[in-house]
Amino acid sequence: MSFINFKKKEVQVKIVYYGPGRGGKTTNLEYIYSNFKDRIKTEMVAIKTQGDRTLFFDFLPFDMGKIKGYDVKVQLYTVPGQVKYNATRELVLRGVDGIVFVADSIEVRKEQNLHSLKNLQENLAIHKKSIFKIPLLLQYNKRDLAEQDIPLLSVETLEKSLNSKLKVPSFEASAVVGTNVIQTLKKIMSMTIISIANQLK
Amino acid sequence: MDYNLGPEQLTKIEEVLQEDLMEMGVHCVIFIDMAGNIVANLDDGEIKHDVYSLAALAAGNFGAVSAMAQMIGEEDFSLLFHKGEKESIHFSKVLTDFLLIVIFGHEISLGLLRLKVTESIEKIEKVLKS
Question: Which three-class secondary structure state does DSSP give residue A171?
Answer without folding.
Answer: strand
